[in-house]
Amino acid sequence: MEAAGAGIDWAAEENMLRVVDAEGRRLATEPFAHDEAGIGALLSRMRGLGVERVAIERPDGLLVDRLLEASIAVLPVHPNALKATRPRHEASGGKSDGFDAFCLAELAGTDSHRLRRLSPDSDETKALRALTRTREDLVGARVRLANELRAQLDAFWPGARRIFADVDSPIALAFLERYPAPADAKGLGEKRLEGFLSRHGYPGRRTPAELLDRLRSAPEGRAGALDAEARRGAVLGLVATLRPIVCQIRELTSQIAGAVRAHPDGQVFLPLFKDPKSVVTAARLIAEIGDDRSRYPTQEALAADAGMAPVARESGKRKVATFRWACDKRLRDAVGTLADATRHTNPWARKVYLDARARGLEHPHAIRVLGRAWLRVLWRCQRDEVPYDPARHGNLIRLRPAGG
Fold this sequence. Notes:
Largest sheet: 5 strands, mixed
Strand content: 5-15%
Oligomer: single chain
Order of helices and strands: EEEHEHEHHHHHHHHHHHEEHHHH
CATH topology of the largest domain: Helix Hairpins
CATH class of the largest domain: Mainly Alpha
Shape: globular
CATH architecture of the largest domain: Orthogonal Bundle
Number of helices: 17
């Protein structure tokens, strides 16, 4: 009996397979361990049942790669779509791995024409995605640890937080490693600070006298001896944790810069930014949009997945537009960064943003309006495989004075 569709409810330890025929009759419901032997057995079982397409609740990962490698069509299903499907088959609200696999198999059999068939990205795009997502996660860890470090310093030594602009900068971390508490800096004067700055390559935006004034003009803490010693240990621990993270972020940024310039779509996205250092956002856009041109058949599909298009709700005479929660959060953040950066440098972007603010929209909403406008440009550039060129941007040209 030929299989009509299959569904896999994946998990870290076990993957549940459900296969149904064209009439919806069950052909198989079996668990397979998430190890090499289990994945091999899963693929063998699917080939034996003639499975040609499978629905699964994720668009990437090792299991998805193995399914694609086996020439099985993968239909990624959004968690919200699966959640909405369950009541069609179970009124009691029950949920289990087997039931989810059954719902996914039903979707693969009955709704395959509505589900997007996954096309694998190139190796270059996958590599860029791994680099940018890892860097993003490390930046999040750095922000959390830096906030904890600020809180510790505010409690017993605010001057050490204020002496440098960023508490998690290499020079600030080196200073806190050498002077983790007020008692350690009692003999710190201009000459000693000047030597410290020279050894650590301080760029010299402030003189040692100005930095010392920042340190000493801050409020003085009143921590007791035991409290101060405990906080000193906490500062040293946080600094020791932050330093390798900061170094790795810098290393990943360098790798991303090389990877995005070597990527075929790098020429399309990099010209969006005037600053040659703005490679991370361009790389994130490439990594999240991907290089499969069929993934976003229209500009509206791209805007929706990026969270830049609102969700329309209509009932009778009532029509409202609401914020789109279900989207690619990483892509939304990258497009928002693009919009926020270009409103300062691109006259067209500035006008779109200011017009949105003039209509009474708050800053985040205006950024989404501008982001949606940029996505229309990006979609066309990527489709035509041409770099963004201000000289060919019609709306930007119309803003320039004649002969300008």
